[in-house]
Amino acid sequence: MSRALRRQPLVRKPPAKSPSFRPSGGQRPQKQQAAAPEVKARRTLIERIPVLGGPAQDIVNELKKVSWPTREETTRLTVAVIAVTVTIGLLLGGVDMGFNWVADNTLLR
Fold it and tell me: Per the confidence metrics, is the pTM higher than 0.85?
């Protein structure tokens, strides 16, 4: 930092006004009215179940937003996972057999 910048006085902003917890003097917001009967008729079967309606509909809505892989991507990735699993299994099995051979031929004689 240069000497000229160090000599400059720091500019401080005034503190922000703290939020007021009193109402702004206007009228209170109106409560929303109950749904009309025709709106209830448009509800899906999941929404009509009293306990599961809201959460189940939320799950369905979130699942609609998911970008699902295509069949080709799913097949390719499944084959890759199986190939890696078999390769690592064979590698670990070979290491285990090697340690068993070492233990039988050197340590247990």
Answer: no
28-to-25, 31, 33, 89 alpha-carbon distances in Å? 9, 9, 15, 68
Helices then strands, counting H and E runs in the chain, come out as: 5, 0
Interatomic CA distance for residues 64 and 44, integer angstroms: 15
Residues in the chain: 109
- Maximum separation of any 2 CA atoms in the chain, in Å: 94
Provide CB contacts within 8 A for 69, sequence distance 6+. Answer: 77
Each residue of 59-76: pLDDT tens digit? 888 888 999 899 999 999
